[in-house]
Structures are given as structure tokens and as C-alpha cells.
Amino acid sequence: MMKLCPHVAAETTAASHRQEQCLLSTVLLLLLPLVSAQTYHWGPCPNPKVQPNFKLEQYLGRWYEIEKLPASFEKGKCIEANYAVRSDGTIRVLNSQFYRDKVSVIEGTAVIQDPREPAKLGVGFSYFAPYGSYWILTTDYTSLSVVYSCTDIFRIFRFEFAWVLGRSRFMPAETLSYAKGLLIKEGIDISGMKATGQMGCKDN
């Protein structure tokens, strides 16, 4: 097997530290293609406040994406998510977008990982990958949801996602301003946030 850092010996503490640095550098190089399409910052994930007394049954149904931090898996327009409870108690997640002249749909699963904090969900779209965080920072259930997700790598740097969702394709400016202000208040950098195209979209 090829050694990633053959020039570093592991016999001393200093050498072991250099080995760790070299391995981290290698991981960063491998992740560069992902980094270019995501939002990342140095340091571990923050711990923002989430919606108190979250009521899942009121949250179910269709939400339209209004704005987001860039994500490699969301390149189209007309992006929406639909949530429904399955018979086994898990939550079916249907995400759709219009991209390259066609509608693409992906189905995933969401779970409430800790009943004491029901607004902190885990969402997965593959049996082979762990759940990603889906934290609902605030929602009124009828017009607005602000969602945050973060994954850190060795607590050295983190990938961040954030979404402002609405029950309709277009959101009043004052509501959007409130949502973005909340993200800023929680220490989340929204300078890279982009609007999602919802003009001319057809409801399924």
C-alpha cells in the first residue's frame, strides 16, 4: 500500500505531529473539488438555537426554497421539498428541482434523533452515508422555515448549508430579511447566500 507521507517518521512526538499535519493536508487536497461547490469556514460547527416546542405534524407538506448557501447538489431552479410521515415513523423527504431541461427528484429519509430536541433532525439520501444535520432554527409552519446544516472535519473546518423556505414560491421582503437576520444573529455567515429561481415553475 502506498504511504501518504513516507518522509515522516513516527518514532517521536514531533514526527507524529508532522504525520498528522501531512495526513490532514492530504485530506484537504482530496476534498478540494467539494470545497469549491460548498460553503466552508475554519473551526468546528456552531450550536445555534433551534425552534422550541417543534411540532412535526404542522411542519409536514411542501416547502419551496427561497434562498440558500451554495450546495453542489442543488444547481437547478424550482427547488422544493415535500415531507410526509411513513408507516414506520420515519419521515419521507422528496426533493425536486428543474435542471438541464428536466425535473429531477430524489427521495431521502429524515428522523428525529433525540425526542428531547425534535427540531434537530437527521436527513439521509443513501443507505451508505450517515445522516446529515437538518436543524430547524425557526418556523411559523405556515409561511417560513429557516434551516441550518453543518458538518465539520476533525473540528478543523466545516461545511455549512442554510436554507430559507416558504410555503409559497415567493416570500415578502420583510419576511426574508427577518430570516437572514436570524442566521446572522446565530453567527452564521450568509454573505454567499443566493436566491433560488422560482419564476415560471409548475406545481406538481
Automatic annotation (TrEMBL):
Signal peptide from the UniProt entry: 1-37
Gene behind the chain: LOC115025771
Q: Which GO terms describe its cellular component?
A: cytoplasm; extracellular region
Q: Report keywords, A-Z.
A: Disulfide bond, Glycoprotein, Lipid-binding, Pyrrolidone carboxylic acid, Secreted, Signal, Transport
Cellular compartments annotated: Secreted
Q: What is this protein called?
A: Apolipoprotein D
Coarse class of the primary localization is: secreted
Q: Which family does it belong to?
A: Belongs to the calycin superfamily. Lipocalin family.
Query: Which PROSITE patterns does UniProt cross-reference here?
Result: LIPOCALIN
